[in-house]
Amino acid sequence: MAKNPDTERSNRHCFVAAKTGGGKSQLMRNELIPKTGIRALFWDVDTDHKCTRFSDRGAFLRALKSADASGKPFRIGWSGEDNPETFEWFCRAAWAVLDGSRETWIVCEEMADLGMGQKMPDFFRKLMVRGRKYGAIVITTTQRCQEVPKALITQPANRYIGLHEDQDARYLERATGLKAAEIEALKPLTFWHKGPEGTQKISTKYRKFTP
Ligand SMILES: Nc1ncnc2c1ncn2[C@@H]1O[C@H](COP(=O)(O)OP(=O)(O)O)[C@@H](O)[C@H]1O
Ligand SMILES: [Mg+2]
Q1: What's the 141 CA to ligand 2 centre distance in angstroms?
Q2: C-beta 189 within 6 A of ligand 1
Q3: Above 90 in pLDDT, residue 46?
Q4: Which class would CATH give 14-203?
Q5: Antiparallel, parallel or unpaired: β 158-161 and 14-17
Q6: For 34, 135, 150, 157, which has the most beta carbons within 10 A of its beta carbon?
Q7: Which residues contact 73 (CB under 8 A, 6 or more apart)?
Q8: Which contacts of 85-90 are long-range, i.e. CB under 8 A and separated by 24 or more positions?
Q9: In this structure, are residues 18 and 24 in contact, taking their beta carbons and an 8 Å threshold?
């Protein structure tokens, strides 16, 4: 169970969207997720992140329990079965280690593949809606923005919108207020960042990554 709620914690959730090859994983690795010193869980079915990955539920839960009990930073990833039921199990495991006295990063890649439509699974909703005061920083990505719940696009404090084709760009204009033409005009590895301090264009440099 999540423990030690701290209502002063701010919303630090992030949403990252771009068509495939737009640079979502590069942006997260290079700019958004600290490289060391964090407690982090990764839904990493395409092995895009630096973490110790598991594909066996028992092994994953044992590693998470012992990492959490150690009080030290950890980076634990799931790269096993990629289906809605397993994602809900992953979110439940994340919820169980949340502790409002410290941050826990929860990185969830390629959300459209989970077929949620507009309905957020229960524990995922908890992470998104109630996780803030328990130190959760949830980062989600998708390359198909119309196939994830709209709340994923509208609720996070930070939205990073990269290159999209016309229909998706128009949908994102309605959801974020960014101009569709300015979304379509982006180059790979370049994003509009809409956050608490306003909107700016940011870019990242390609760096080779070996899982
Ligand atoms: N060898 C390379 N040299 C320079 N840029 C590259 C190279 N390989 C890939 N890229 C850039 O990285 C992008 C892929 O980034 P990635 O974060 O994996 O995209 P996404 O996660 O959005 O699918 C490519 O579209 C390209 O712009
Ligand atoms: Mg990627």
Answers
A1: 8
A2: yes
A3: yes
A4: alpha beta
A5: parallel
A6: 135
A7: 36, 37, 38, 39, 40
A8: 87/43, 87/114, 87/121, 87/124, 88/121, 88/122, 88/123, 88/124, 89/57, 90/41, 90/43
A9: yes
Q: Which ligand is nearest to the CA of 21?
A: 1
* Amino acid residing at 82: D
Ligand nearest to the CA of 45: 2
Predicted pLDDT at 211: 87
Measure the CA–CA gap between 161 and 68, rounded to whole angstroms.
33
Domain ranges of the chain: 14-203
Q: Is residue 201 left, alpha or beta, with left meaning phi > 0 and alpha meaning psi from -120 to 50? A: beta
Q: How far is the CA of 1 from the centre of ligand 1 (A)?
A: 38
Rounded to whole angstroms, the Cα distance separating 125 from 76 reads 21
Inform me whether the pLDDT recorded for 102 exceeds 90: yes
Is the shortest distance between the CB of 5 and ligand 1 below 6 Å? no
CA distances from 135 to 11, 15, 65 (A): 9, 17, 17
Residues across the chain = 211
What pTM did the predictor assign? 0.97
Q: How confident is the model at residue 39 (pLDDT cuts 50, 70, 90)?
A: very high
Q: Which amino acid is at 66?
A: S
* Torsional sign, CA 160, 163, 167, 168: negative
At residue 176's C-alpha, the angle toward residues 197 and 139, to 5°, is 70
